[in-house]
Structures are given as structure tokens and as C-alpha cells.
């Protein structure tokens, strides 16, 4: 009896031990984790599948606010009712041999063109921006440069003085002809049948718009980021028709790091099965690839110091309910997650989500490639010049326009005669292509130029703006070149945010 009682007591103690410890014993096979980010992507795909009658870049999704939100640029999506359209029925020969038989350019204007049409400023955009730089009665949504343009001396560009023109670039998807536009042969979207375009091609299309407005000479050719490239390209094509140049966070030659970053973005897009070699307009757009591409781009648009201040290593903690706490004692709300977890991850996720359906994937591919191809060194310009000569037979020669307008060949340094030219000694690091770049910029030798660079910019590093300023000074009168170096923490996006320093430099230059 004593032995039986001892066995029963041991069994009872064992059962009590199991009950007391079972809730704290780590599970060998924990419950499968949830993936809300994957669920959201699949939900978006299902929603889009039911809306295939709409163009991908015209759809919209609701995006919740993200933690740690800071100063962000605004990208409005315009509609045909909110911009004007210039149509050219004359064919446009492109630098790499393509021909557009006709094309549209969407544009918006602010201010009033004066009687002699001498106060026009052509504003060039970044890669993904539309023509909507500033709100107006036809579209009261804030524009991407809302705080820089307006009536009064407090604005960088005073519309009481200047007539501002901003276009959507050729190859874009906000009203100008691009890959999503109908092909003249079958009225279906071009897709990847769209020809390769360059920054010079985009600017040639803009010059046709300027001609249609009866403007002989621009007061200024101004732009930021990719627009900084175009501000230079416009003056190179028409040096006698540009009064001054403003290039902000731009470059005269795309560096290998920027090319690599944009290649990675295009690779994400082209690896998305929905991209379908560029012919996705009747089905699902490559929204997953677009989201990934935008996340990569966002990393290059801002800076580490800003993100350290805004986000640091903070994580987004999701508190569990009492019921969840009771059943998931080993899975507290602050456990690491494979979906966006750190605040910087939630920020990148948010940026990708809000952009992936606003912009056409093919436009991103083509316009980013045009940025990669930009190179103002003399050998690169000569190569394009020779290509255009070889392909001139593709178009009626009378449509090529004047020699000044369409020749890519820069004059030699010997042909630039400037009286009392002071020798300029550069203190910038020497690069192998320095002399080629100086010679490539000689068409700009008599034009006043404002260059603005940002030390925290990792997409177009500060050295590229200093390099541009130095080459311009060597190519002509150094006194005509004004160079501002900014220390803001916002990286490449500084030109969209810093109204005080960027705006002040522009305002002072335009006086």
C-alpha cells in the first residue's frame, strides 16, 4: 500500500509540474509567422486584377501614414483637364536613330509673358515629376516646387516678374508622349517599342514648344536633378537663346554609381513577371517591381544623417491584445518581424507603396536610361553628333532645323574668344575626363550660370557639381559662374525642401 501511495504521489507531482511549466517551455516548432506586407501585396494584385480597364499609373491606393514622417516632397498626378498640350506633327529624329512621327508635350505655366516675350523661364523636372510644379486655379493641388514659385519677392521665382513654363518630359507618362502613349501604327501603347530617348531629345521637344509660344530667348533655363542636366542641354543646343542657366543637384556626366543604382531599379522592374517585356497595359502592372525600384531610389534621394536623426534604430512595436498575450506568451509585440520592422523599413515601404501605381513602369525605365546616357564630355557629344549625321536620311532634312539647334558638335577651345579672360586655377581633385568636359561645355562659355550642390547628396555627389562649376569656369569667363555649396541633411532631395538656402540662391541670381 505504501508503494502504491508513493507511485500515485509521484504521478500527481509530475502532472502538476507539466501544468506549471508547459506554458513556459519554448516550442520546438513555433507558429508560422504572419506576413502582412506580403498579404498587402497580394491584396493589391487582386484589386488591380478587377480593375484592368484602367491604366496602371492612373490608379490610386490608400496609404496609411507612416511613423517618423518628416519633410517630404509632393508629387501630384495631373489630369488632362489640368495641363495644356502642345502637339508637334513634324517628325522628331532621336539621337540613337529612332523617329517619333508626332508627339505631345504636356505643360503648365505661371505668371504672364511680357510684351517682348523676354521674361520666360523654362523649368526642367526630375525623373518622376510632372509638369505640375505649382498650384493654379485649374489644379489647386500643391505642386512639386510649390514653395519656390509664386507672386512676390519672397519666392525663389517671382511670377510677378517671370513667366514660368514646366513640361512633362518626352518619355514620361503625365501627358507627354511616352511608352504608354498609342503607337501610330495600331493605336496600342508603344510599350518597349518606344525608341530610346536622351536628355537632348527631351530638350529638342521642349524647344519646339518654346517656338510655338513665340519665345525667341529664355530668360533662364533652370532645373533640379535630371532637370539640372536638361538646363545645361538646352543651352548647349541653343546657346544664343538662353540668357542664364540654373542647375541644382545636377551633373554634366552621369557617374558610374548613379548608373548602377538606376540599373538596379530597372532590374527590379524587368524581373517582375507582370512587366511582360513592357507589354502589360492590358493586364496587371509590375507593381511589385515598381515598389522595390522606388525603395532603392529613395535610399539615394535622402541621406544617412537625416535618417539617423529621424529614425535611428527605432522599431515599430505592435502591442498585442489581452487574448493574444494569453495565447502567445512567447511572441510579444516587440519580437523582430520579417516584414517592415525598423522605422526606416516602414518609411521605405511607405514610399514604395505610394509610388508603385502613380507612375508608369516603362517611363521609369526609359527616362532613367536617358539619365544614364547623359554625358557632356566632347567625345560623347561627338559620338551623338556622328550618329545623327548617319541617321539624317530617316527624316526630311528641312525638319532637322537650324545647325545651331541640332548640331551636337561643340566648338574647340580655340574658337572661344573672350577678351580679358582671367586664368582660372581649380582646387578640385583632377579627374581623367576634366579636359574633355571643359571642351564639351564651350557652347556655354558666355552664359551666366548658377550651380548648387549639396554635401549630403549621394545620388549626384557634391564633387560632381564642383566639377561642373570648375569646367564651366575653365571654358569661359570664370566670373560668370556662381557656385553654392549647401550643408543640409536632406541629401539629393534638398532642392525640394530647403526653400531658405536653395530658394535664396536662386532669388539672388535672378535679380
UniProtKB/TrEMBL annotation:
The Gene Ontology terms for molecular function here are:
homoserine O-acetyltransferase activity; serine O-acetyltransferase activity
> Which GO CC terms are listed, alphabetically?
mitochondrion
Q: Which keywords does this chain's UniProt record carry? A: Transferase
- Name the domain of life: Eukaryota
Where do the catalytic residues lie? 225 (nucleophile), 457, 492
Residue intervals of the AB hydrolase-1 domain: 120-496
Q: Which InterPro entries match?
A: AB_hydrolase_1 (IPR000073), AB_hydrolase_fold (IPR029058), HAT_MetX-like (IPR008220)
The family classification in the record reads: Belongs to the AB hydrolase superfamily. MetX family.
Protein name stated in the entry: Homoserine acetyltransferase
**Source organism:** Wallemia mellicola
